[in-house]
Automatic annotation (TrEMBL):
GO BP annotations, alphabetical order: copper ion transport
Family membership noted in the UniProt record: Belongs to the ATX1 family.
Entry keyword Ion transport: yes
CC annotations in GO: cytosol
Lineage, highest ranks first: Eukaryota, Metazoa, Chordata, Craniata, Vertebrata
Organism of provenance: Pipra filicauda
Protein name in UniProt: Copper transport protein ATOX1
Molecular function in Gene Ontology: copper chaperone activity; metal ion binding
UniProt gene name: ATOX1
PROSITE patterns with a match to the protein in the record: HMA_2
One protein family per Pfam: HMA
Assembly description: Homodimer. Interacts with ATP7B. Interacts with ATP7A. Interacts (via dimer form) with SLC31A1 (via C-terminal domain); this interaction improves ATOX1 stability and controls intracellular Cu(I) levels.
Keyword annotations: Chaperone, Copper, Copper transport, Ion transport, Metal-binding, Transport
Length: 71
């Protein structure tokens, strides 16, 4: 499953909970949130556009950073 990296302008725990809420609602995703670096890493079969639109539902400035290689 591809792992995608996104920038989400999160400033607090509430912001990361908003991200968790929209991704849980989408379903079919596994994700990690890096709040200090304002990044979200998502494993999903959903396409990038779907993931980006879902993250934008938080109202935060969001952008796609690229595919992350498996580590």
């Amino acid at each position: 499953m591809p792992k995608h990296e996104f920038f989400v302008d999160m400033t607090c725990e509430g912001c990361s909970k908003a991200v968790t809420r929209v991704l849980d609602r989408l379903g079919g995703v596994q994700f990690d949130i890096d709040l200090p670096n304002k990044k979200v890493f998502i494993d999903s079969e959903h396409n990038v556009d779907t993931l980006l639109e879902t993250l934008k539902k938080t109202g935060k400035n969001t952008s796609y950073l690229g595919e992350k290689s498996a580590q």
